[in-house]
Hints:
By secondary structure, the protein is an alpha/beta fold. Helices cover 31% and strands 15% of the residues.
Amino acid sequence: xxxxxxxxxxxxVNIAPLIDVVFLLLIFFMLxxxxxxxxxxxxxxxxxxxxxxxxxxxxxEITIDAGGTIxxxxxxAALQQLSTLPGEHPLLxxxxxxxxxxxxxxxxxxxRQLHLLNLSIVTESAP
Length: 127
């Protein structure tokens, strides 16, 4: 008896299960990855000899780095929204020691235009 080997003319690979696995992995990594809202900035604050102040309740912070970039990027809209709220709300200006003077004045001027007078400039304690 002679057995013949059967050779199919076309070999077909079913990739549907592979696609399912790839999508499941994608969903897994999307759900388990944490995203930071904002990267931490390294700000070299100027020193002051005045005693530390009591912490403010829910202040709005605006940060200016050494290059003059103002964070958050929508700082004008944040100040505008803060000015529409009733009462006085604290505004903290955290400017790097090397920040351009113009950027600091720009934020302070905009706050004054919106009648946000409760403005504090953050410093570090002098050694």
